[in-house]
């Protein structure tokens, strides 16, 4: 029985040993080196240092080929962050930074890719390449997130502004604003949507005082950048024709300009404010000549920029910012010796005094001879026949007599004991006699013998101007009460009352050269010639009604009256009444113009040649 | 089931016809070679292959294998021999891949025991040499195991899962009996095995059947195939 049981056990064991066992191997020979897969990682930042505002959500994200990447993660300050939201083979990290102290932190991004060998380990993620990128996180505040304007430049006639590139994430746009003092609100100059474009052009900058700033993402701003000008400096000179030549440098922002306006600040003489002179409609023009200039006028040139776009000025006539002026005033004509008081002579000589002495300026040769009396003279008067010249010595308060034919006889006259006050003015005849006006006295003096002949009380104070006739028998007097005429023939001073009665409102009076008995009077509306002996009116000419008239002097030798009517400078022939137009001048009262031999002289050192007009 | 019923009725008829004849007992041991269908598990292997991150090769695919049997037949005098038979066989498959970094193996092993009634129908089977028709029918007890192992560098992981299934089978065939001594008989037989039954389920949990993840079809043991073998009988 045991034998049978043993046989059964053996049989069963054999059967069990014959159970099928599967087999076979499939070995694959592979290159173990592997190559990193071409993983395309797209991050929303591309700098090594990330500036993040301390009060915002930041989205880090990347997209890559999920077939080649096993996993990816962000690590901030050594800690893996979460949550990570996988979308379309990518990863997005939303992170809120308020808990971070301003300062420096770290950010790492790791991608674990497949090895690319195709091995089992590669396929199950046990073999691969760990790619890591590190950044420095700098948590900053509003100010640091802003972009400051760092410099400016000009190109193609426009202003360019350059600013710092935005350092943060999630860039949306830059907006360049301009603030000016005369325009509100702030003006949007440009909107830039490319973070790397950090320059913009302001086509409306014309040199005005402006403050620029960049506003990033409508939120971050970092200060202002102030700019003004450069405004061109204008200079004025006289060319060889005596014209006023203006020149300036073309401003670097010329393309923003239509051109220029050149004005004269005319407040000083007509109270018109700025008078337009020229309008130039080419911004590349750099010089011009003032057309139809006025003689004996100090031009106070203002150079105004004429904007092409919006001009933030109240109006163009009142330049607030966009104007410059010449450093010095300039006037039309040629240079001549600067004069103080002046008196014309018979021939080509004009006498005038200045700090250098007594000047004898020859209007034909343009030669100037300076003679030095004891001290500078003021209020000089030359006799009709150019025998003597009397002047007031301002230093000694004495009179100085100049013998024009015998200079060795020049002398200082001291009448101070007879004068109550400072002597105002004196005039001299060809005989050497003269009149001194002091306070309300008219004193007839023999300058040669230095003796007072007679005196007369005057009804009013005398003013500066009095003229003695060449023969010494008559004189005119300008007082506060008006003009009056006197005879001092026979050493007795008597007023010629008939003339005064007929000549109310006289502006000027002097004697005809060559005929000392004939006196010329000029009022605002007419010119008259009287015979002093008979006090009868000999001739009369009317001035143009409505035009302001200024009479300068009687031209010795030619018997003409030099005067201005409106803006015209004229000669009036006192024999025929003919008028000769010499040129234009300002229509204010220029009392010190002198005409001689085709030349008009102005006390401020200018000469106008009008010889072609006569 | 209808076929099984028909076969049972036929066996009862034969026994009734031969009940009064002389009887003889035959004890036999045998073995042979069997082929298998296993299309369900082949499909499952294919799914495994396609769903791995790497691509193992199918190095063994349910080949034909030996079977072994033992039986006791009671011969009736004229045309019938009937008795009990028990047999067993096995097969399997392997998915495999290895490279410098590691190795992956997925073995599928299947084994079955068949217990049933066998009938020979011929001219005095067991008493005279000659051909017979044979018919087997009974129950099958199948087992299947998944043995999965992956080695990556120094890391090794393995997983085993065992399944079982119960079914029915019929196996018609032809047998030639040859008396070679006083009490020894040798038979050569060829038959075709047909399986019927449920799918595999996890051992001990009959409601946890394994299904194909894509087709949702149950995975059944499919021992269907040819059987060819020899049996040596000892006649008592």
Task: Give an account of the 3D structure.
- The complex is a heterodimer of chains A (614) and B (236).
- Chain A is mostly beta strands.
- Chain A is built from 4 helices and 51 strands.
- The longest helix of chain A is centred in the N-terminal third of the chain and has 16 residues, at 2-17.
- The radius of gyration of chain A is 50 Å and the shape is rod-shaped.
- Chain B has one domain (2-235): Porin.
- Chain B has helices spanning 2-18, 39-50, and strands at 24-34, 57-61, 65-75, 80-99, 102-122, 130-152, 155-179, 184-197, 201-202, 225-235.
- The interface between A and B is medium-sized, with 27 and 36 residues.
| Global morphology of chain A | rod-shaped
**What's the end-to-end separation of chain A, in Å?**
175 Å
| Gap between N and C termini of chain B | 35 Å
Low-pLDDT segments, ≥5 res of chain A: 313-321
Helix content of chain B: 10-25%
Number of strand elements of chain A: 51
| Number of helical regions of chain B | 2
Oligomer: heterodimer
Average of the residue pLDDT scores of chain A = 84
The name of the CATH architecture of chain B is Beta Barrel
